[in-house]
Amino acid sequence: MYGELVLVTLIVIGLVGRSSIITTAACILLIVKLTHLDRYLPSIERRGIELGLLFLTLAILVPFASGRIQPKDIIEAFSGWVGWIALIGGAIGAYLNSKGLETLKMDPQLIVGIVIGSIAGVVLLRGIPVGPLMAAGLTAILIKIVQLFIGK
């Protein structure tokens, strides 16, 4: 019963915050729960991030597949400093994502704060909740910084 209440709350928060992603995800999970398909929740949890990343990567690569980005565009992208900064940003993002995954594996209860923080970011800051791994990576970095200051 508690899980359903949380999901309904997330649906309401998603609707109020105009976040179709949170609303849709909570609706799908509520349907899974109400149709007694709970046995699939571990699979959704285990493979959901992989599937999400797969579809996100597919969407990002469509311009290459459709021919909208040509080899000359790739060369031009790295002819200026902005392209090199984008390359560095992508590398740092991938690194943070790996640290986020490690952090969530070692300390899975952090997902509660990350999910609530993501919802707050969507509702209050009009963010997009596509980066739980990035959020976990940033959390890992922030934890290290705080530990440096408090000496733990």
Describe this structure as you would to a colleague.
The chain is mainly α and 152 residues long. It has two domains: 1-36; 70-152, no CATH class. Helix content is 82%, strand content 0%. It has seven helices and no strands. The protein has helices at residues 2-16, 20-34, 41-66, 71-77, 81-106, 110-125, 132-150. It is globular and about 55 Å long. It starts with a helix and ends with a helix. Keywords: Cell membrane, Membrane, Transmembrane, Transmembrane helix. InterPro entries: UPF0756_TM (IPR007382). Belongs to the UPF0756 family. Pfam families: DUF441 (PF04284).
**In DSSP terms, counting alpha (H) and pi (I) runs of 4 or more, how many helices?**
7
Mean pLDDT: 86
Instruction: State the end-to-end distance.
Output: 39 Å
Low-confidence stretches: none
Question: What fraction, in percent, of the residue positions are helical?
Answer: over 70%
Determine the structural class based on helices, strands and strand pairing.
mainly alpha
The structural domain count equals 2
Silhouette:
globular
Query: SSE order in H/E notation?
Result: HHHHHHH
What radius of gyration results from the CA coordinates?
A: 19 Å
Strand content: under 5%
The main pleated sheet reads as: none
Please report the total strand number as a whole number. Answer: 0
Protein name: UPF0756 membrane protein ACFO1S_04285
Family: Belongs to the UPF0756 family.
Pfam families: DUF441
Membrane topology: Multi-pass membrane protein
